[in-house]
Amino acid sequence: MAPIYGDVLCRALVICVVFSLFWTNTNGMYVKYSREELLSLDPEHSHVDHVGISISSTIFAGLTKPTNSQDNTQQAGNRAKRSRGRRAGLLVKSRRVNNIKRPPLPTLLLSNENRLFNKTDELFSRLQSQKDFRNCHALCLTEIWLNNSHPDGLVKPPGFSIYRQDRDKTTTGKQDGGGVCFMILDKWCTNVKVISSGCNKNLEHLTIKCRPFYLPKQFSSLTLTAVYIHPAADTKEALDHLRDIISNSENKDPDTHSIICGDFNQANLKTVLPNFYQHVTCPTRGINTLGHCYSKMNSAYKAIERSGLGNSDHSCVQLLPKYIQKV
């Protein structure tokens, strides 16, 4: 038993020696500072009543910052704070509730359908699933290829009212093709009146007057005109006829705001009405801009290209209002 007690005693002595050495080294790491020494380190705050502190020299050395860091901290404090806000952009603005229910100008969707009847499923699906389509207040569709055998209920999306002008076979001599229509969102406007419509071999048009639930004071109404000019039509005769239609509607209501949109092909409305501005800047078929939208305000709309419906070779164009009302 004696050897066992000897081993225990040796281990206890070793532990005591190691502990005594560690305690001695630890006490040597600390430096005591007097009150005057601490106040001399920061003369700007010498009026603060400090007390005696025992702190490690290594830790205290790490608390001091170089002069460059102090300058950077001071510059960051003097820098103006960035104000927090909402995302910007016309597309984001058009998605807000107030701009959906009370827009200064309607959000438009312009599209050449090339037969609407076989694209109604995709149109209904986009209006239901895509918010940007659903928030459009008016859809202007050309080349709908409809006739008396197609009732409105088959092509009208839920929540919209439809106004259409089918191609007249007797005046055009063509059996299929053509036709224009407007689909108006019921939440935006229910007071809609057809003031002009017609179809001949050069021009197919439909003009409606809308008095929505909300309208800026500088406008008494909105006059929307859907246009389709055939590629082989007499452009000069078609534009002259269209100019007379627009002039007559504005003479009857001088305070109305006229918006003319549709498929113009090679025609340009500014040649007969130079006070109107073209808002579609993106291509609608290949590299060509065949779809146009005109109004009397230069900064009324911004055009965004969307994919076409079904197998149509024309792109859709969404027109977002840039106009900021004055009153």
Automatic annotation (TrEMBL):
Coiled coil: none annotated. Residues 64-77 have a biased composition (Polar residues). It comes from the Eukaryota. Residues 64-86 are annotated as: Disordered. SUPFAM superfamilies: DNase I-like. This is Reo_6 protein.
